[in-house]
Structures are given as structure tokens and as C-alpha cells.
């Protein structure tokens, strides 16, 4: 009896270690893709990534189920098998929500145990049906203390459900992640549920961008600075806030943008950071893909390119057009920062905006082995 009991304990320990080994991550080199991103799935160079996020699944506000729109059914169902043709080891995750999602629907869903169960069960079913290795919650953003409490309940129940599903099905356990504010408090007010995040998610993606935009400021600025001596928003301050709140560095993945914002200068001769500006340069609030920024630089005579090592960002200007963005040196510095500070890795929003994989390749080279 004693020998059998010891063997049972030994096998249990080995099983747990096996699960942890299989499910643990050495590093995350990730990027988001969506159908209208400007690149087709077969053209994705998945060799540059360990993980790819497919965005976005929807939350039905009535049923509280996770669904995939009819227009995305085919690309989403083919996503994993297609990107694995070039890189069989790349892991795919289905991202739910996004910046344009119905925020009240997420708040309502998370507020009741029955609706949380509908969300959780349907998310697992959709992930398995479409061949994804994990699920990513992109709720932008919980807007009250009760939202944060309910989010914690959701994450804990989600983790319990994916664990149970894996044991019952014999499938590898689904990865669970969330895209979150760059800092541990939304708008400096609402604290994320740190204990639930720490125990129930494999990692969180810190959206360290969109700090500034032409519609919110009359001065030029890089929207995704790594440092800010003035004490305002920055990637490094966000990481520090999450660490201070109690989240381990190995749960943090630093995000950076493959797009920038164009501003109209008030005076073409005043073209530095924080120069007076008069709205966006171009449509979509001046948002410009990295590939389009490179085209602008190449095609616009007299364009000056600047790298600012103090805040870590690039900007360029020509005439009254000023564009802040991340270029090779900025990306390399951010990736090095993430690795040197013990973070799990990095991600980019979004890979379709890259210029012939220039930034994606720079990022993976900067991280190294």
C-alpha cells in the first residue's frame, strides 16, 4: 500500500511538471493579424514569431456567446494551418473584442456567473473548432471597480474551465492571455485584478502605445515612447506599475506599434517633439502604417528623420507634416529593454503594417536566442 501511494504521488508530480513544461513559455515574440490589415494569411512570415493573434472574435450582446462573423469564418478557420506551413511550431490565439467592440457588452457579460459561463464555454468551443492554441481577451477597457472585480471572477472561472476541458478531452490546455492597458490602472483609477491575472493568465499584453494622438493634443508627440522624463505615460512606467502591483515580469509582454501618427505643424520651422500642431496630417486621425511612413520618407524630398534616444522614438518631418513612429532602432531598444528587465517577450500591433517584415525581423534579432 505504501509503495502504491508513493507511486501515485510520484506520477501526480510528474504529470503536473509535464503540464507546466508543455504549457510554459520560454519567450513570446508575437504579433496581431486581422482580415483587413493589408496582408493575406499565406503571406505572413510566421518564422519571425512564436505566437500569432487572430483578431477579432465578437461577443454577442444578447447571448453572451463568443462568435465569429460570417465574413471571417473562412480566414479564421484556416489561420492556424496556413501559418504553420512556414512555421509548424508557431502557436495561434483567437483574440476576442478589440478597440471597436461594444464595451457595455463585456461589462454586462462579466457581471453575472451565468453569462460568464456562456462566454467561457463558447470561447473554448470556438477555439477548438477553429484550431487555435489559445484565447486572448481584449476588453478595452473595464471602467469601474465592479468591472475589475467581475473581470477577476471571469479570469478565474475561465482558467478553471480550460483546465477541466483539457483533462477531459486529452488536448493540450488552451493558453489564456489578455490585452490590457499599458499600466496596472485604467486611466489611473481602476486597478486590474492582480491576483486573478497572476494565477489565471499565462501572460498579459501591455498596449504601450496610443499615449498621444492629434485629436487629443495641440503638440506633436511620439505616441509610444519607452521613457518620459516628464512623468507622463510611457512603456517603462507601465511595466514598473505592473511590477509594483505584484505581477511577475514573466507574465508581462511589452507591446509596440507598427504604425504612427501624422500631425500638421503650425510652423514648418518648429519641428521637434512638442512642437505646436494643428490637427492630424491625413485621414483616420493621421494614423499611418509603418510601410506608408517609409514610402513617405522615400518619396518626399527633404524629409528629415530623427531618432530620440531620451524617450526612444523616431519622428520625421517635411514641410508642415510631422510623423511620430517606431523604426528599427526604436524597436530594437524596446525589445532589449523587455529582455533585460526579465519580461516574457513582446508583441506588435499589427503585422500587416510592417514594411516587408523589416520591424518584425529587427525585433526577433534584437531578442536573440
UniProtKB/TrEMBL annotation:
Residues 27-369 form the GH18 domain. InterPro entries: Chitinase_II/V-like_cat, Chitinase_insertion_sf, GH, Glyco_hydro18_cat, Glycosyl_Hydrlase_18. Keywords: Glycoprotein, Glycosidase, Hydrolase, Signal. Residues 1-24 form the signal peptide. PANTHER family: CHITINASE (PTHR11177), GLYCOSYL HYDROLASE FAMILY PROTEIN WITH CHITINASE INSERTION DOMAIN-CONTAINING PROTEIN (PTHR11177:SF383). The keyword tRNA processing does not apply. One of its GO terms (molecular function) is hydrolase activity, acting on glycosyl bonds. Belongs to the glycosyl hydrolase 18 family. Chitinase class V subfamily. SMART domains: Glyco_18. This is GH18 domain-containing protein. The keyword Glycoprotein applies. It comes from the Eukaryota.
Amino acid at each position: 500500500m505504501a509503495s502504491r501511494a508513493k507511486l501515485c504521488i510520484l506520477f501526480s508530480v510528474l504529470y503536473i511538471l509535464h503540464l507546466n513544461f508543455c504549457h510554459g513559455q520560454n519567450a513570446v515574440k508575437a504579433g496581431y493579424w486581422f482580415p483587413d490589415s493589408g496582408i493575406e494569411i499565406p503571406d505572413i512570415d510566421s518564422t519571425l514569431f512564436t505566437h500569432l493573434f487572430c483578431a477579432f472574435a465578437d461577443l454577442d450582446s444578447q447571448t453572451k456567446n463568443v462568435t465569429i462573423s460570417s465574413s471571417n469564418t473562412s480566414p479564421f478557420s484556416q489561420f492556424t494551418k496556413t501559418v504553420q506551413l512556414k512555421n509548424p511550431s508557431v502557436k495561434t490565439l483567437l483574440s476576442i473584442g478589440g478597440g471597436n467592440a461594444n464595451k457595455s457588452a463585456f461589462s454586462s457579460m462579466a457581471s453575472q456567473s451565468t453569462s460568464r459561463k456562456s462566454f467561457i464555454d463558447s470561447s473554448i468551443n470556438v477555439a477548438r473548432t477553429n484550431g487555435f492554441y489559445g484565447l486572448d481577451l481584449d476588453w478595452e477597457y473595464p471602467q469601474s471597480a465592479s468591472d475589475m472585480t467581475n473581470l477577476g471572477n471571469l479570469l478565474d472561472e475561465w482558467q478553471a474551465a480550460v483546465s477541466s476541458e483539457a483533462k477531459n478531452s486529452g488536448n493540450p490546455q488552451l493558453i489564456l492571455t489578455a490585452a490590457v492597458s499599458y499600466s496596472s490602472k485604467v486611466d489611473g483609477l481602476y486597478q486590474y485584478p492582480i491576483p486573478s491575472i497572476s494565477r489565471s493568465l499565462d501572460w498579459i499584453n501591455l498596449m504601450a502605445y496610443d499615449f498621444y494622438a492629434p485629436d487629443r493634443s495641440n503638440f506633436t508627440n511620439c505616441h509610444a515612447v519607452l521613457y518620459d522624463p516628464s512623468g507622463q505615460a510611457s512603456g517603462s512606467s507601465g511595466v514598473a506599475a505592473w511590477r509594483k502591483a505584484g505581477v511577475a515580469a514573466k507574465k508581462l509582454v511589452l507591446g509596440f506599434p507598427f504604425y504612427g501618427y501624422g500631425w500638421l505643424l503650425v510652423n514648418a520651422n518648429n519641428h521637434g517633439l512638442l512642437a505646436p500642431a494643428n490637427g492630424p496630417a491625413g485621414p483616420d486621425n493621421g494614423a499611418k502604417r509603418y510601410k506608408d511612413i517609409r514610402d513617405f520618407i522615400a518619396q518626399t524630398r527633404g524629409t528629415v528623420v530623427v531618432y530620440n534616444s531620451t524617450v526612444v522614438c523616431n519622428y520625421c518631418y517635411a514641410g508642415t507634416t510631422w510623423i511620430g513612429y517606431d523604426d528599427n532602432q526604436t524597436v530594437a531598444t524596446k525589445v532589449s529593454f523587455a529582455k533585460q528587465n526579465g519580461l516574457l517577450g513582446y508583441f506588435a500591433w499589427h503585422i500587416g503594417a510592417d514594411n516587408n517584415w523589416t520591424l518584425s525581423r529587427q525585433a526577433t534579432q534584437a531578442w536573440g536566442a
